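Hypothesis: this fold can be encoded by more than one sequence.
Test: take the structure tokens below, design a sequence, compare later.
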């Protein structure tokens, strides 16, 4: 799997340190997959952020997560429809992140997320997910969502797609990433933080690779026993050796597939 495929790791997972170190050794960007409260009633991960928490409580959890995953360059929410739709809650998150020079990748689990508004007045930059690759664990549907991300990149200049380390998802990415269209470029998450949207005038020759639309892939690490940690990184390591070279932007991104356009 290309190095531009990034990973988001639960900060309190039993083998989070091993996953982080392996991803770092492979040269991948790492995000913290931070649990946040959903609107629905369901079991919550340890230290799940909730809207009712004080700023001090949120800061303690965020600081501890960053301490657990020190190679992280960003934070991505796990679930979080209740938390991300709370302006006060997200202001607490952004204030806690502000001192750490991290960006926030919003999974967009709810339409009225307050992440962008909450980040105003801080140094935290916010990027948003456009496509979920594997809500349906079916090869045809994952391929459809991958193609949808490409079309969104062509229309909007970029697209970010999030997936999980299911075997089916990994298989589809291994098959489709080596065959990206010529106008699409795979990048890492941090590539999108300051990416201006430009278009090439009609009749002009195609831009060089450094100015082409880009795709960025991030793989969100959920604690799935069948492929947790060792199996996932074995897949990534083997695919790095077997896939043909893929052209990357000099910037970076995360597991999400993202496409950008200069």
């Amino acid at each position: 799997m290309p190095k531009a495929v990034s990973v988001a790791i639960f900060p309190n997972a039993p083998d989070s340190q091993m996953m982080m170190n392996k991803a770092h050794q492979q040269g991948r960007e790492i995000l913290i997959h931070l649990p946040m409260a959903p609107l629905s009633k369901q079991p919550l991960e340890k230290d799940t952020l909730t809207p009712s928490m004080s700023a001090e409580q949120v800061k303690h959890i965020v600081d501890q997560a960053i301490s657990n995953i020190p190679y992280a360059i960003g934070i991505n929410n796990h679930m979080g429809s209740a938390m991300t739709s709370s302006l006060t809650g997200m202001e607490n998150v952004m204030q806690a992140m502000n001192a750490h020079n991290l960006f926030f990748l919003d999974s967009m689990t709810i339409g009225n997320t307050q992440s962008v508004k909450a980040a105003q007045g801080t140094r935290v930059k916010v990027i948003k997910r456009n496509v979920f690759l594997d809500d349906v664990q079916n090869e045809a549907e994952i391929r459809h969502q991958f193609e949808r991300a490409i079309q969104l990149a062509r229309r909007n200049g970029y697209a970010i797609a999030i997936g999980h380390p299911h075997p089916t998802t990994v298989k589809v990415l291994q098959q489709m990433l080596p065959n990206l269209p010529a106008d699409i470029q795979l990048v890492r998450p941090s590539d999108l933080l300051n990416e201006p949207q430009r278009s090439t005038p009609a009749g002009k020759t195609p831009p060089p690779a450094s100015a082409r639309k880009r795709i960025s892939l991030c793989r969100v690490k959920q604690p799935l026993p069948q492929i947790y940690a060792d199996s996932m990184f074995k897949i990534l390591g083997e695919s790095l050796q077997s896939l043909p070279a893929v052209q990357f932007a000099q910037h970076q991104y995360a597991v999400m597939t993202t496409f950008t356009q200069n």
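The longest strand covers residues 213-221. The chain has a mean pLDDT of 80.
Hypothesis status: open.
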